[in-house]
């Protein structure tokens, strides 16, 4: 049986299998090198004509002026083999580094905006494997492939009909993918590095710490940021976990973790018999709520600082996405970009805003309405059913009483699936110019829906039913269940499926090591992205911050979950999926906003849950306070806490001082450059060609 | 009797009075010009030795390298005359334009960051009077004078003792001002331009529109921004004014403007006899509150867009204050600025933050506590006095019943004066590097106190006394009284004083026109700054947005006030005060934040005032609603409105699209420049001096 290790194409094995003389030739003398590092694999359709394959290879190696990608390409063992292996010459890598706006270490070790013409002032400039990380090199190859655009109307050889017609400025890669000629493009993995990384990571004995630099080097910016955030978040859970344990087990009168006390959902005056403990319980509730509010704010502010520091170290403080070519899916009329002066498709902002405001927002609202409708329907059916069951009491009605739940689950699932499709279509149709804007809008749409889906029921229980006991039960079962289910579906199931599926494939090709590596690529599923991982963290953060005062052990459960999650996710991304492309990124983007919004809502939520808490109700009744007074007091506390939260967020700077200085240095350098550059220009204009 | 017109030094009259050959000589050939425009007057002490005067003149005309200001200076009619007239050569003006980071129109008419070496690509480059506005030229002279720093330890000739010792890097102008040698530095006025401006401005017949471009050209950025804001604000008051009139006079059941209905502060069930009108009244209240909330948000967002457009037109999108020398009052240990690499005093950020957080904030809090204490004392004394008066009823107790009010006014005034001194001292001590940061911190301190002072009583009436009738009375009297008092003190009193005081001075010097102009300068008081003007607008905006639902005619009164205010302020700044220096600015700065904070609080305020409104109370009692339900309803409405407000603020972009594009163009140019500049540098490094 083959181990998962052998199932991915790896850089070294591919390099060995290929004849070095078959690489396409570089056009510039500085890039000639005896060693070529294969970076990306292009998977062609089986029935592709050799003229088409030839044409694709010529485009990939053609210079940018001719609409090509200026990369190196290798046809594999023979012309009929359905793969292309792509590498990048030094010039292309360096020019792309400049174009992306990456910062690199100069001779003094400062990260400064990379400039191709100043390349000799940078460290490791002659060793691309040190200068750029593997992930960066592979991303650049993808970026260049995606930037290929036809320079004139032409036909793609070997493809008949409309599919083969390529218009001027049309995206070549997209066209080939739509025509079914290119089936897949993915980065090759590096077995050695992956093994070394795994040892430091999911095989590590210590519970804490992850090899973030190696993760960044191997997997790239977006994935490294996810694991950095997960790491930071896990550390940050320690204080609330300690407090939760203290409140649950050491304070008298606090709610015991699982054996609920005899206070009913509607506490009569009789339920407040344990009035000795009431004072303590109320105050521990309050401590928990206030602590949770301050903690979530401080956590997010400190993460921003950490994120800025990471962004500096990884050279992404100055990404210039808005000055690059638009994303491949971008549609628009050809025109001149007013900022860069390049000819490219343009799409007016107001049209996009109209599409967002007049179509996307109402459609999302409609789906949220459908969620609420489903919930209302569910509660209505359930109460009808249970009253019927109570009246008759037969087995049929007992069985039927499960019907509303089943129907609700089916309904919710169908709605979720439909929504996912609609959200992606809508975002495509909104036609964002930058990839990051596209991602942010898509993420926001899915997020709002997920929030609603996950928390609507809990808020319904908390506010309309006012049944905190039920809420606590539901919350703890959700937390424990979702963790077990997540870990199972995320790691165990793919692992088992992969073993079974991978081994059945392996047996066929045991005798051909090179072809084995190439063909085995198909056996690993593509990486599904970090979306669901972030959603999972966010929903858990929601349980923690929104309802923490109801169930103080939330943080402990989350802490345990995260420690396993780190290893699970690490194993998964290393072994169970194909290596993904991962663009350089400056932060976790829209997810940061989502966490902040949740932290903001948590203030309100905690205040109102406290107000509704039966113990506090009993306490006020005992003290003879007017409920209106308590209500007004709650409102005042809520407002004060929100103001405190805002002040805290304002007072803690979003960037450490040294990052601010580095940023200002870069800014100052560009301003100085602008002034100096003009000297040269105006002097040469005054004294032409002297 | 002399008219106020003749009382300021004017550019033309000064130029006539001075011998052109007495100007100090320029060092660079390009700046030699037959015409020298006098810009700034330096007022020396009477007993200044001629050696000192000579030294000051030499420093002013010395080049930057020698610690001088590189300006032109004229000693006046003879060496013993106690004034210096300063002008600026073309080189100095252009270099300072570059240093300030101003944008200027290039040959194609686009505003781009000015670069000295690229100067020939800019419009009007050979005519400084067209290239820079008068205000900009004068500000540059001030800026250069303030930047003079000694290059080595030395003595100022003619000043004995410690006062005359100048250390290396010490600020020369500050030293001379502290030593009492230089008494004043102010810009000369231009009588012709001022007259032309006045005709278009305060003498204009149409109610609307101000000559903003001329104001900017003559008075400079900060003053032009004030009047732009005032203009915009006045226009923005039209919709709420129309709504207020409609609600007050055309809706049945609305509260009549001045004759209060017979509803007491504690409405019994009997007071709701006019229950036919109640529905309408309640809904008009609500309309007013919701409208006010949306209006204030939209108003501020639209102002931001207007402000960005103005900033582009006035070339201040790219000000580079953080890369310039620190402000003159800045203290610190000598070191190397990590960003610019210049030698200058440094002061660590964390120390400043400690000073702000551990000293300034508690001190401000203490003063706010004293305000509350005063208010509590006042109410306590008043109730004691009135009960004594009721008990005895003599004339003595009747007189004594005024005592608390008098004492409170005296106390408030003393506290206000003390606070103003403390706020300035604290801000100086916080030691901000940039002038704008200094201004912002100072303004914030005074603002918080003023807010408290003005609104604490009103909120006390609204929330603790719950007496909306009294609130309405107080509000209308405050609005009307403060307007009358403001207009009187701001315009009439200075006008009368100036006439009387100015004429008595004039009679002495009628025979000497040149000396008359120079000496008369002292007769005009220095411009007190825009602080009080902004505070006035802000407090009025507070009355409008915080309490609008109590007194719907507020907007009408403010509209009338603003229309007179525009003319009053215009007349004042043109005729009653000395022309001030006014730095180029990109927005109204911290005032914008203050207006936004007020607009935010207005949502809460309006919701709670509505909740407390006696009519609504009566309405709910009639409808048999539980007060708790109404309270919860209020809370929900408040939260929804805040969310709506945030969404509105987020959805309306802060800058118009074309300004965004212009900004991106500037950014893209600087990045391109950085790349290009490096070409040259690395090429020259590779091929030395070929």
From TrEMBL, chains A, B:
It is a multi-pass membrane protein. Residues 215-665 form the Anoctamin transmembrane domain. The keyword Lyase does not apply. Its main location: membrane. The keyword Membrane applies. Keywords: Membrane, Transmembrane, Transmembrane helix. The chain crosses the membrane at residues 232-251, 285-303, 356-380, 446-464, 537-560, 588-611, 631-652. One of its GO terms (molecular function) is chloride channel activity. It is found in: Membrane. One of its GO terms (cellular component) is plasma membrane. Belongs to the anoctamin family. This is Anoctamin. The gene is ano10b.
